[in-house]
Amino acid sequence: xxxxxxxxxxxxxxxxxxxxxxxxxxxxxxxxxxxxxxxxxxxxxxxxxxxxxxxxxxxxxxxxxxxxxxxxxxxxxxxxxxxxxxxxxxxxxxxxxxxxxxxxxxxxxxxxxxxxxxxxxxxxxxxxxxxxxxxxxxxxxxxxxxxxxxxxxxxxxxxxxxxxxxxxxxxx
Length: 172
Hints:
The protein is mostly beta strands. The protein folds into 2 domains: 7-87, Elongation Factor Tu (Ef-tu), domain 3 (Beta Barrel), CATH 2.40.30.60; 96-171, SH3 type barrels (Roll), CATH 2.30.30. It contains 2 helices and 12 strands. It has helices at residues 74-77, 96-100, and strands at 7-16, 21-26, 39-44, 47-58, 63-68, 84-87, 107-110, 115-125, 128-134, 140-144, 150-154, 159-162. It has a 6-stranded antiparallel β-barrel. Strands 10-9-8-7-12-11 form a 6-stranded mixed sheet. The two termini are 30 Å apart.
């Protein structure tokens, strides 16, 4: 189960030295008040990626030097410049199938306004979640529940509009 990583520690501004350390400009609440940390999450391509910390030190003002385990060269960390760094709340994130349980019963439409059917359940398949949809002619259609496929979620209308790749529904 994943942890919720929503506490912004700061932003990586540049590399520091030749051994893979980075400088992090701290958020105001952490200036002079750095908690004990074993790991952080670096936001890469808008997704939190966990990194274990080799060492860190408060460099004064609003700067912290941070070095990750297994990242010991400038080349390995230079791609992190500009990335945000997050801490976890210590609370575990809820299971995604529970998060998505609220859309059970929604009607699923394609971007062409074609009704695929009604969501019967969310299936936890290793590696992904699947929408089990009952079509108007009572057939089961399985569609991966992936954020790239979701165009619009209309809660009041209980409708989910999806951009489904061509041929995906033919596999059912």
